[in-house]
Amino acid sequence: MRQRPLIVRLCNWIGDVVLGLPALELLEAQGYTPVLYGKRWAATLLGGYPWAVHARSATLAQRVHELRALGAQCRTRDAGFARRVNALVMPNSFSSALEMRLAGLRVAGYARDGRGLLLARRVAAPPARHELERMLALAAALSGVPAQPPPEIGFRIAAAARARAAEIVRQHGWQRGYVCLVPFATGRVNGRDKRWPGFAALAHRLAAAGHTLVLCPGPGAELAEARSRYTQAEVIEDLPLDAYAALLRGARLVVANDTGPGHLAAAVGAPLLSVLGPTTIEQHRAWGPNVRLLHAPPGWPGVDQVLAAAEERLAAPACEAAPGTA
Question: What single DSSP character describes residue 6?
Fold first, then answer.
């Protein structure tokens, strides 16, 4: 099948990029070659995939210049590039469609947020559904091939990332197992914080029960919080996202907020307790067969409830592959 380059504007959040992977795989299966354009961390996150990932600059003028250059490169590979729909915008924002249109690309995307005139292929916005299903439906509309959402994402991890995670486990002596905690989250939902307030208490009780706890914070405030509030835990600094994925995959358990690493843990098949508060579950829950949602609207699950779920999972026989294995 002849390969057709397709410039794809990725979403801005780690979790949404992960949830968009089935859409990208559908496009690839239908003869498109995804040329990805997104945040600087996306290239590291997607290091296990064969697609080129190009970093997106800060200003509109820079982004238009970058997208024009990408379009010129694609035209040298495909004589029909300029005559067909040649770009896909996964976010719903007006700006994401505008930058592509100003770069002279023929863009497909959902016709919403007043951006219909910017699109060469307008796809009717679907009713509220999960983000994975929303992006998969967009890819299906472009390719003309209907698709059912997969039961799991099956996130691909490069061998080098698996090796790095395995070395961290070896150096710290975690071969008997570890629990990854993800108490961090950015953004708010309807003005409410997405961070479960019981993480510090949970960490204290898990550590008292003899479990090895691991945190992999981002720089700045996350690192400071990890050091000050989670003194029972091993803190791994400056871990690249692909190695983080491998470390999550080898965990006996991951406990996370509604945040990118939580979606990543689900995508690699790690056993995940997803502790949710104001998040809209139908649209933004972590996706995968090893996910257990803990949700107590309109508030939060209690520490005892989360601890009981964690102890139940940790008491089960370990069945997940350790970092570095296939």
Answer: E
